[in-house]
Each structure stands twice: as structure tokens, then as C-alpha cells.
Design brief:
Blueprint: H1 13-23, E1 41-46, H2 53-69, E2 75-80, H3 85-97, E3 102-105, H4 114-122, E4 127-130, E5 140-144, H5 146-160, E6 169-174, H6 180-193, E7 198-204, H7 210-224, E8 229-234, H8 237-249, H9 267-275, E9 281-283, H10 286-301, H11 305-311, E10 314-316, E11 324-329, E12 332-334, H12 340-344, H13 351-354, H14 360-365
Parallel strand pairs: 1-2, 1-3, 3-4, 4-5, 5-11, 6-7, 6-8
Antiparallel strand pairs: 9-12, 10-11
Helix pairs in contact: 1-10, 2-10, 5-6, 7-8, 10-11
């Protein structure tokens, strides 16, 4: 799907936000509003609650940016589907009935939501896919470079295995089959894993469930033997938590744990990285993604075509539509070596939030406190 490869960079939010600012610099909310005033309503539909990022980061940032762009005259309507595709369809229908001006859609099921996207189109409500690429006639897409996420996970996992060889067995715990991002993460990871290690077991995980991840990891341990597992590819942090529970139940803990990947830089995962239980996560600078989405939504509904085009210079294809305008934000491999220069420097978490009493010694060893 990806048309433009984006390199992994060491700088994070500062680069992403600088890029957003540069792209949107040609116009501001006080000029060139040919179709709408600042009195706009942005509908925001998020997919699930297992991952804490949607409530803790994405939506608050979007809400704040919409207010800033519209001189506090614009507003946002928020709904979270809690992992249920039917619930999200109902929520989207409600927003269409209420005649919101534009919808930012993070789909639970990218395929089943397509008829609702068409309904919004028929009602002249633009839909911008957020984080996950929905099917149907969407007007734009703002996300991270998802194949790159998988590549970063796979490459970092291989590098973490001591004296790695092709016979080393890897367990893959992938995301939900209804989430198109999960397939892209998986494809990117396999590009790095194939030919370098052996993928001995691979599982797709409905609704990104940590409980299912734990159960599948238990199956893998029973089939392979815990001592024969050289590493675990976990598509996100929540599932990594379940995987670690399964390994601990099998008697593996501390430095004996194999390297385990993750994604989203959740606080619990950051603490596991500091303590050595989880090897890495993928830090996706949410402010860069969320602010770009808010800018694109406001620009689209206000008829700022120049600004919208500048914000969405990439192009992606979905199974139903081609050449979709897109903004793809880069990502960073997060390990214990760069926690200070990434999530702490970017203000995602405070040192006091990370370095609680349980993790104080580990934080001191990393000079975080």
C-alpha cells in the first residue's frame, strides 16, 4: 500500500510538529474560508479502549487543536466503539444525522464501515480516515507509516537476539484481522524476519486482546518448549503484557525472558522496558499525527484546498479506492537507551510517572532520576 518510504529518525515530536507547521503555513484560520466559518463540528470516532492512547493522547490533542484552529469556535463530538464494529456504525450514523461537518474515523473494521462512509459522502460530510485506513470513499488518511512500524519491530527483534541464526524460533502475535494496520505491521515485520530467523508460530489476535495474546503464547510455549523460543514479535504493548504473563506462568522471568517487541509506548510498557521485561516498543509521536488530522479536517471542511493538499502529499491505496491523499508520520524504535530523548523529552510522560517506587532502582541505573 505504501507509496513513499519514510526513514526512521532519531528526532521525534519536534520534527513531526515542525513538519506540520511548515505544511500548514500558507494559510491560517483567520483567512480564506470560502465555504465555512470557524463554527464547525468535527466528529471523532475511535475504535477501542484496550489501548489507552485514544483517550489519553489522540482525542485530547485533536480537540485542543480544533479549538486552536477555529479561535475556540469549533467543537468536537467524540465516541469510542469499544471494539464493536456495529457500535461504531451506530455512532457514525448518529453523527451523520446530527450533520457534523467532517468526521475523523478510526475504524474498528475497515471493511464493514464502508457503507457508512458512503452514507457520509452522500450527506456531503467528508470522512478522513485516522490511524487505520477505512474502505469506502474517504477524503483523506492521516496515520503512521505502518509497514515501517513492522520493519522497525522486526529489525530490532533480530538485533536483540544474541548470536542470531536462521534456526532461531520466533513467535509472532499479530493484531486484529479486521484492522488493516495489523496486516501492514505483519508484512513489514516479515520483511525483516524472513531469512534471518524462523517464524515457528504465528497468531492473529481478535480485537487486539491481551487475554487472547496470553492464551496463544501459552499454546506456543506448549508446542515449542519455552527454552526454544528466541524472541516474540508482539504487534502492540497491550498484547506484550499478556505474552509476558504467559512466559512468567511457564517459569520464565527477569533476564531469562526472550526479547519481546511492542508498539504505542504505553506507560506500563515503558516501565517494562526499563525493568528489562520488554525489549522495545514503537514510539509513534501522537501529537504529530493528531494535530495533522485536526488540521486536515478543519482545512477540508473550510474549503482550504491548498492547505489540505499540502498536508496530504503522500498517496495510499485501499481495497476500494486508489490515490487517497495521505499524511504518513514517521516512527521511532523505543528502547531503554532512548527513553529520555524521546517520550520524556517530548513530554509524553513525566519522570515521576514512569519512575514509581517499583521502578526507582531501574530508573536510577538508566540515569532517569
Amino acid at each position: 500500500m505504501r507509496r513513499i518510504a519514510i526513514a526512521v529518525v532519531a528526532s521525534t515530536m519536534s520534527l513531526s510538529l515542525a513538519g506540520c507547521g511548515m505544511l500548514g503555513a500558507s494559510e491560517d484560520s483567520s483567512s480564506a474560508t470560502p465555504t465555512r466559518s470557524n463554527d464547525v463540528t468535527v466528529g471523532v470516532l475511535m475504535p477501542e479502549e484496550t489501548n489507552t492512547r485514544y483517550a489519553d493522547f489522540d482525542y485530547p490533542i485533536i480537540k485542543k487543536k480544533v479549538a486552536e484552529l477555529t479561535q475556540n469556535k469549533g467543537k468536537t463530538e467524540y465516541a469510542n466503539a469499544a471494539g464493536e464494529a456495529k457500535t461504531q456504525s451506530t455512532q457514525m450514523q448518529k453523527m451523520i444525522d446530527e450533520k457534523v461537518d467532517v468526521i475523523l474515523l478510526d475504524a474498528v473494521d475497515s471493511k464493514s464501515i464502508a457503507p457508512m462512509v458512503q452514507k457520509a459522502k452522500d450527506a456531503n460530510i467528508p470522512v478522513i480516515a485516522y490511524d487505520r485506513l477505512a474502505q469506502g470513499p474517504i477524503d483523506g488518511y492521516v496515520s503512521f507509516d505502518n509497514e515501517l512500524v513492522g520493519e522497525v519491530q522486526g529489525r530490532t527483534l533480530v538485533e536483540a537476539i544474541t548470536n542470531v541464526k536462521q534456526s532461531d524460533k520466533i513467535v509472532m502475535v499479530n493484531g486484529s484481522p479486521t484492522d488493516p494496520n495489523a496486516g501492514q505491521f505483519k508484512a513489514g515485520a516479515l520483511d525483516e524476519l524472513n531469512g534471518r530467523v524462523t517464524v515457528a508460530r504465528s497468531y492473529d489476535t481478535d480485537k487486539w486482546s491481551p487475554e487472547l495474546a496470553e492464551a496463544n503464547m501459552t499454546k506456543a510455549i506448549e508446542a515449542l518448549g519455552v527454552s526454544n523460543i528466541a524472541g516474540v514479535y508482539s504487534a502492540n504493548d497491550a498484547m506484550a503484557g499478556g505474552i509476558i504473563k504467559a512466559l512468567k506462568a511457564a517459569g520464565v522471568s527477569g533476564s531469562d525472558l526472550p526479547p519481546i517487541t511492542g508498539q504505542d509506548a504505553e506507560l506500563a510498557a515503558v516501565q517494562r522496558i526499563i525493568s528489562g521485561e520488554q525489549f522495545m516498543s514503537v514510539y509513534k509521536p501522537y501529537p504529530g499525527e493528531a494535530e495533522a488530522a485536526a488540521e486536515a479536517a478543519v482545512a477540508k471542511v473550510q474549503g482550504r484546498d491548498i492547505q489540505f493538499d499540502a498536508l496530504t502529499r503522500d498517496r495510499v491505496d485501499s481495497p476500494t479506492n486508489k490515490d487517497i491523499p495521505a499524511k504518513l508520520v514517521t516512527v521511532v524504535a523505543l528502547t531503554k537507551d532512548n527513553i529520555k530523548s524521546t517520550i520524556i523529552a517530548d513530554g509524553i510522560y513525566k519522570v515521576s510517572e514512569i519512575c514509581t517506587a517499583k521502578y526507582k532502582a531501574a530508573c536510577q541505573a538508566l540515569n532517569l532520576v
